Amino acid sequence: MDLLYLNLHCQIPAEFLTSLDLPLVFLSSLILSPFRVIGLNYQLSSSTSQSSLSESLKNLKAWNTKSYKFKTKEQIPRQKFLKIPVFKSYRELLFCISSKKLSTLYAGNFWENNFFWASFKVKCALIALIGGKFIKDPYANTFLFASIFTAYDLFNYRFELITTKMTYEHFHYGQNKLKYANSKYLGYFMQIDNQIKEFNHLISPASENPVVVTKFICWLYSMVAFHNKWENEKMIDLFILHTIFYPLTTAQRRIESQFANPALQPFRYKNILHALEKIYYQEGILDGLYRGFMLNTIYMIPRYYILPPLVYHFSLKNQEKFNAERAQM
Known about the structure:
The protein contains 15 helices and two strands. The protein is mainly alpha-helical. The chain folds into two domains: 149 residues, no CATH class; 180 residues, no CATH class. It has a two-stranded antiparallel ribbon. The radius of gyration is 25 Å and the shape is globular. It is a multi-pass membrane protein.
């Protein structure tokens, strides 16, 4: 059963979503997600035949490709698929969700899929990866399979799924009004993906859970896709993108110089906290952001916000003068 398809159940209308900010959309996804879980359980329980169950497991395994150690259907208690939750009130339903009882009723992690689903609705799935990596993934427990993915491989796979494997139709999913915006988001994602590919050959994981400096920068870099919804914000987007891109090039120079010198050890991160410590205190990312902001302030603000109005005002005055002289002739 295709989880990408199931995550699009209980959709909010596109006109409603485009008028909301991210917190409101995420809140609405939390409210609607119980009904999506119930519908998913009902579909799983209606699949009583062995063939349909095996097909669902096969599709689920295909969605989580690479190095997952997947349990066979003999190892999975069948009654967990057939259990349909019954709630006396919506209050009881929310209580079950808050206590994570529903998370054991279907294939996958409830909160992780909920984050992923909410990000699809606002066309920026990378925001889900931020919450997943910092909060959930280090302490995640899987239900159907025992993953032997590292956090590094899991992020790479999901990022590749978002940036390269997903077709254009997946991004708007029939919402024709958002096609133009999705092409912009897809362009941002492809830029980030190309940057990550340049770093992959430079980074050697040191432990079971390595975290790469470029991933954190790319997370920040990807967040700017939210702002590029309207054409009148294009200059603001360029300003933010170039500001965040500056420390990325700084980190690239640091890593390349380190690998060029055999006496230096490559960047290695033991866990998320260790990576944050190195990124913000030892690798000068905050200084890079500050320098990038100052350079853009000196260069882009005069270019895009001061000179164009002056040129427009000057051309308008010349046009009025030309029209007055032409009328006197």
